[in-house]
Amino acid sequence: MCDVIRVMIRRTQLYVPSVSEKMVKKSVELNADSIIFDLEDAVPPEEKDTARKTLLKFLKELDWGDRELCVRINPLQSPDSFADLAALFNEEKVDCLVVPKAENDLSFLHKATGKGVLPLIETAKGLTKIEEIVRSEGVIGISYGIADLALSLGGDYKWYEGNQYIKTLIVSVARAYDVDPIDKVFFDLKDTDGFRRECEEAKKLGYVGKQVIHPSQVMIANEVFSPSREELEWASRVVEAYEKARKEGKGAIRLDDKLIDYVHYKLAKRVIEFRGQ
C-alpha cells in the first residue's frame, strides 16, 4: 500500500488502454508526466478482466521511472469497479486512482488504499457536488469529461466543449482546496492548432496541465504548460526586485512602469518553483 502521495508536475496525463499490450509497453518511452492506464472507456465490457491481468503483468515487468502512474477504474456505480479495486489494492506502483463519474465524497478510496484520488466530473450530480468531491481526503487533482457531462445535462456536446462557466468552476474549486486542476481531453487528433489553443486557454484560466489521448499531444501540452523563457526571466526579476524592496520596508514597487505587489511576487515564485521541480 502506498502511504505517501508524491508531489508531481502534471502537465500531461496520457490515457493508455490497459487492454493493449503494445500501448502499455510504448508508454514507458513517452514523455508524459503521468500515465493513466484505462480500465474504463477504452476497454470493451467483455475484455475488462483481460485488461486487469494485462496491466498487473506489465506493472510487475516494466519500469516507468519516477513518473506518476494512475489507473482509471470503472465508475463506482458499476460492479466492475469492485474488481478493479481488488486487483489494484496491493499494487505499490500505482500512485493514483482516477474515478470517472464522481458524485460523492471519495475519502474512503484513499483511506482503503493509501493512493491519491483524481475525480472526473462527468454528470449533473457530480457538477453540483463538486466541492464535496474535491474536499475528499486524498484528492490530488480534478478533471472533467465534457462528452459524458453534456449527455448527463441533456445538452449539445459541441456547445459545452467551450463552456467557460464549467471550466472556471472546476479550476476555482480545485484552487480553493489546493489540488491540481487538469483540463479535459481533446479528441480531434488532426487539429493540432486547435489542441494548442485549448492548452493555452486552459493555462490562462489556471489549469496546470491537460489530459491527453495520443502521444502526439504530449509534446505540445508539455511545452504550453511549462514556463517560457520570457516567463522565467520576468519571474526572476520580480522576485529579486520585490525581495530587495521588502528589506527596505516597501510593500509594493514599480517595475517596468507596472505596479508589483505581494500577489505578483507569489505568482513569480510559483513560476520559479515549477522550474526547480
Automatic annotation (TrEMBL):
<dbReference type="GO" id="GO:0006107">
    <property type="term" value="P:oxaloacetate metabolic process"/>
</dbReference>
<feature type="domain" description="HpcH/HpaI aldolase/citrate lyase">
    <location>
        <begin position="11"/>
        <end position="215"/>
    </location>
</feature>
<keyword id="KW-0456">Lyase</keyword>
<dbReference type="Pfam" id="PF03328">
    <property type="entry name" value="HpcH_HpaI"/>
</dbReference>
<dbReference type="InterPro" id="IPR040442">
    <property type="entry name" value="Pyrv_kinase-like_dom_sf"/>
</dbReference>
<protein>
    <submittedName>
        <fullName>CoA ester lyase</fullName>
    </submittedName>
</protein>
<dbReference type="GO" id="GO:0016829">
    <property type="term" value="F:lyase activity"/>
</dbReference>
<keyword id="KW-0460">Magnesium</keyword>
<dbReference type="InterPro" id="IPR005000">
    <property type="entry name" value="Aldolase/citrate-lyase_domain"/>
</dbReference>
<dbReference type="GO" id="GO:0000287">
    <property type="term" value="F:magnesium ion binding"/>
</dbReference>
<keyword id="KW-0479">Metal-binding</keyword>
<dbReference type="InterPro" id="IPR015813">
    <property type="entry name" value="Pyrv/PenolPyrv_kinase-like_dom"/>
</dbReference>
<dbReference type="InterPro" id="IPR011206">
    <property type="entry name" value="Citrate_lyase_beta/mcl1/mcl2"/>
</dbReference>
